[in-house]
Specification:
Layout (H helix, E strand, L loop, with lengths): L13 E3 L4 H11 L3 E6 L2 E7 L9 H4 L4 E2 L5 E3 L7 H5 L3 E5 L5 E6 H10 L4 H10 L3 E6 L4 E4 L1 H7 L3 H4 L10 H10 L3 E7 L4 E10 L5 E10 H27 L3 E6 L4 E4 L5 H4 L11 H6 L3 E2 L2 H8 L3 E7 L4 E10 L5 E10 L1 H36 L5 H13 L6 E4 L6 H11 L7 E5 L5 H9 E2 L12 E2 L1 H4 L4 E5 L6 H13 L1 E2 L8 E2 L3 E6 L3 H6 L5 H7 L2 E4 L10 H16 L4 E2 L1 H9 L5 H15 L4 E2 L1 H7 L19 H20 L2 H8 L3 H21 L1
Helix pairs in contact: 13-15, 14-15, 21-23, 22-24, 22-27, 25-26, 26-27
């Protein structure tokens, strides 16, 4: 029976957890103990190995290696030891009293010595001695070897015959052996190196009940093995240090979970907003249960346990935060799930930024579209000069219809600028990056117009290009084809044009295979197509095919507000072309405003250019403009003042109209006419415009 009492156990030497390294070293010099117990307030919380103190400059660093008491085997003082083998497998055994209060400790050496004291346990001792992985030698009072184990012989590289009746001092440190046998002290961690071996030896005395030295035990550890273990330990510590450094720099939070879903450890990058508490309190808890409590959902741990493969999910917390969690399973050698490594990243702000980025992109696309529209309008404003409400309404209408591919029919007098408005439809629509082609149906002979429009195959007729030709319809594919003077198209070609509008395909001259085309048709004419249809000069079915979106361009005399900007625009272009600086006098501009412009915008452009070319100085005055205008073509014949009985007011208006027309015909300018009539220039200008407008409307009715 093996029992330890207070006489056998080693007393506990304690130091405060707040002690300095120097205080600890002084304490060890006084007590020379192997283990140093750490005290926090009045409670012992663990112990450290005394030999490790030399490696540290401060005691707080050593405390990181402190062994807690609850991890050390303990026995009760005065009671039989239940398992001797268990005691021999431990480096240190705690001894507690009946109230479980720590009262001392034992080392493996103490157990072995106690076994030697009891004769009835000698056989058991020898059996145990041979199974201990350390080298053990028993020395008697005279210093001779009396027992040993196989592991010890291996370490000193000797056999049993060589060690018989040999003094221990011949193999181990003689001074240490003499010290132990003479004083009864314990000598620890003594290095002994020879050409045959390298060992670390502990010398402990064997004492009887009267504390007399009866012998000693030498415990030997193989130095190469220790060095290997130390190197391996340093390597593992280095790996652990590197791993902690890597994890501390990783943005993600790393969790390690066991095969049951319990949290084992975590990195320092904790998402406190996600876990809503101290992560240390979650160690050992099942993360699947946290999902059931509503802390977050879904649980990536649960999904990995179910699927046994890598899983990526977006988790949402009770506080509304979003976390990207990636769970990776780790399998053992048998293919069983052993661990789950979870990498989590808070993407709440990322999701918010992504949403904001989408919104910014939408705004960017909107701004880009608006910028493109502004650029298109700017280009149009360079070509379409106006300030009248009539053209403003037409332009708004064109901006709307240009977004579609419907056929547009432009009508208006010759010279109003129908081609300019056709180009506006092209530039404002989705086909602006595709071709815009124009063909004058009245300027090309009938026998050539068909081949120009539809193209022809090689050898289609005499004189044809051997390679064939692609017609305007195919050249303008995906774009806009402007058919000017559509009323001049022969009836024979009107049938083929109708087929193109209906079937969206063309057949080249000399060909049989129809070719699909995608072309928007914009037609223009200065004639009344309805009257031509009634006279049989234009196909009715083609007219209705063309008249899908009719747009009438008013003549210049009906939009007098556009005359000044147009005149200045043409003058500016000519100045830039010829590097001149010619100006337009106010009275000349007044004259332009009262002129009816039968030739519309084209006539205005010609008059400005003729004035620039023929002028002698840098100012165009009213006299020069008057000489260039076709006054004689206007109806200025005198009317009889009294032809029959009429209301007085009507007669006065007739006389006023006749006088103003005569004055303008004779003096050409509103300034001179006003001077001769004795009224203001503005009155003459206003009344003359009213007269010319009335005559234009009357002419239109006729």
């Amino acid at each position: 029976m093996l029992v330890f009492t207070a006489e056998n156990i080693r007393p506990i030497q304690t130091v405060s957890i707040c002690a300095s390294i120097s205080e600890v070293q002084k304490h060890l010099q006084r007590h020379k103990d192997r283990y140093l117990f750490v005290r926090e307030d009045d409670e012992i919380v663990g112990f450290v190995k005394a030999r490790n103190i030399k490696r540290y400059e401060d005691f707080s660093s050593l405390l990181e290696e402190m062994t807690p008491l609850d991890r050390v085997y303990s026995i009760t003082c005065g009671q039989q030891v239940p398992d001797v083998y268990k005691l021999l497998g431990e480096d240190i055994i705690l001894v507690r009293d009946e109230n479980q209060v720590l009262c001392g400790y034992l080392q493996r050496d103490d157990i072995i010595i106690e076994l030697l004291r009891q004769d009835e346990t000698i056989d058991l001792f020898r059996t145990i001695l041979s199974s201990i992985p350390l080298g053990i030698f028993v020395v008697d009072r005279k210093g001779y070897m009396i027992n040993y184990n196989v592991e010890g012989l291996r370490m000193i590289k000797m056999d049993a015959e060589q060690i018989q009746n040999v003094k221990a001092s011949e193999i181990f440190g003689a001074e240490h052996i003499d010290r132990v046998l003479s004083t009864g002290e314990t000598v620890l961690n003594q290095l002994h190196i020879t050409p045959q071996m390298g060992i670390l030896a502990d010398y402990s005395p064997i004492l009887n009940k009267e504390n007399e030295v009866k012998g000693m035990i030498i415990i030997v550890q193989d130095l190469p093995m220790l060095e290997e273990l130390a190197m391996e330990l340093d390597y593992v510590k280095g790996l652990n240090k590197d791993l902690n450094a890597i994890l501390s720099t990783v943005y993600d939070e790393i969790l390690v979970v066991d095969s049951e879903g319990r949290l084992l450890r975590f990195s320092d990058n904790k998402m406190s907003d996600f876990w809503a508490g101290d992560m240390n309190e979650l160690i050992g808890k099942n993360l699947v249960e946290l999902e059931e409590k509503g802390l977050f959902k879904p649980s990536v741990t649960r999904l990995v346990l179910e699927r046994k493969k890598k899983v990526s999910v977006i988790q949402e917390t009770a506080q509304g935060r979003k976390v990207l969690a990636v769970g990776t399973p780790v399998f053992d050698e048998q293919g069983n799930l052993d661990r789950i490594v979870i990498a989590s990243r808070d993407i709440t702000e990322t999701t918010k930024l992504k949403s904001e980025l989408k919104q910014v992109r939408r705004l960017s696309e909107q701004y880009k579209k608006e910028l493109v529209d502004l650029k298109k309008r700017e280009m149009l404003n360079r070509n379409i000069i106006y300030c009248s409400p009539k053209i403003e309404r037409i332009m708004k209408y064109i901006e709307k219809v240009a977004q579609f591919s419907s056929t547009v029919l432009l009508t208006g007098e010759s010279g109003v600028g129908k081609e300019v408005f056709a180009k506006a439809i092209h530039q404002l629509g989705p086909r602006s990056r595709k071709p815009f082609l124009k063909i004058n149906c009245g300027a090309i002979p009938e026998n050539l117009l068909e081949s120009e429009l539809f193209g022809y195959e090689k050898g289609a007729f005499t004189g044809a290009d051997p390679k064939g030709k692609i017609g305007y319809f195919r050249q303008a594919d995906k774009g806009v084809l402007f058919l000017d003077e559509i009323a001049e198209m022969p009836l024979s070609l009107q049938v083929k044009l109708l087929r193109v509008l209906q079937e969206r395909e063309v057949i080249p001259v000399g060909g049989v295979q129809p070719i699909p085309v995608d072309v928007q048709i914009v037609a223009a004419t200065n004639k009344n197509l309805e009257q031509l249809v009634e006279k049989g000069l234009f196909r009715e079915d083609l007219y209705y095919r063309l008249n899908v979106i009719p747009i009438h361009i008013p003549p210049l005399r009906e939009r007098l507000e556009d005359i000044p900007p147009l005149a200045y625009y043409f003058l500016q272009k000519l100045n830039e072309t010829y590097n001149t600086n010619i100006q337009l006098a106010p009275d000349a501009l007044n004259l332009l405003e009262v002129y009816p412009w039968p030739g519309n915008v084209r006539e205005l452009q010609n008059v400005i250019e003729r004035a620039v070319v023929t002028i002698d100085d840098d100012m165009i005055d009213a006299d020069q403009i008057s000489r260039l205008l076709q006054w004689k073509k206007l109806d200025t014949k005198s009317k009889p003042i009294i032809t029959n009985i009429m209301p007085l007011q009507e007669a006065l208006e007739e006389v006023e109209e006749q006088l103003i027309l005569l004055a303008m015909e004779k003096y050409k300018t509103t300034t001179m006419a006003a001077k001769m009539l004795g009224i203001s220039q503005s009155s003459v200008s206003r009344k003359y415009q009213k007269i010319m407008k009335k005559r234009a409307e009357k002419s239109k009715i006729v």
